[in-house]
Amino acid sequence: MTERKDRPRIALPSAASAGGTGVYSTISYLPYGGLKSWMAHNNVVTTIGQATNLLPRPSSISTAGATTNFSSGAYSTAPAEVCSSPR
Questions:
Q1: Contact between residue 70 and residue 61 where contact means Cβ atoms under 8 Å apart
Q2: What number of other Cβ atoms are within 10 A of residue 46's Cβ?
Q3: Which residue, 30, 53, 58, 78, could crosslink 34 as a Cys pair with Cβ 3.0–4.6 Å?
Q4: Which among 7, 39, 35 is positioned nearest to 22, based on CA atoms?
Q5: DSSP secondary structure string, 10-76?
Q6: Three-class SS state of 6
Q7: pLDDT category, 82, cuts 50, 70, 90?
Q8: Euclidean distance between CA atoms 50 and 35, whole angstroms
Q9: 78 has a pLDDT exceeding 70
């Protein structure tokens, strides 16, 4: 993949804090700039799967490292003909 030179690059944060206390760390991003994963201050990692069609919506959301972890399972979307308005 070649880098496009006609668009400015945006610096995305790799950590966040509030009042001097770390809230999120190890933040990573998908190629289009959406969140891929982050680690909260309690060491729980949240991961957002990338849609297989590369649209900016998740394929799944899950956590690891929590007392009780969460997994959304796979998301699916309706076909375009279901979502389109009548003409």
A1: yes
A2: 19
A3: 30
A4: 39
A5: -PPPS-EEETTEEEEEEEEE-TTS-EEEEEETTS-EEEEEEPTT--SSEEEEEEESSSS--B-----
A6: coil
A7: low
A8: 9
A9: no
